[in-house]
Amino acid sequence: MTSGNTYRFISYNLPRHSEREMRERAREFVAHMKARRSVRHFSTEEVPLEVIDDCIRAAGLAPSGANRQPWTFCVVTDRETKRKIREAAEEEERVLYAKRISDEWREALEPLGTDPDKPALEEAPALIVLFRHAFDVREGKKRTNYYTQESVGIALGFLITALHHCGLATLTHTPSPMGFLGEILERPDNERAYVLLPVGYPASGCQVPELGKKPLDEIRILV
Question: Which of 43, 54, 69, 194 might form a disulfide with 132, Cβ 3.0–4.6 angstroms?
Answer without folding.
Answer: 194
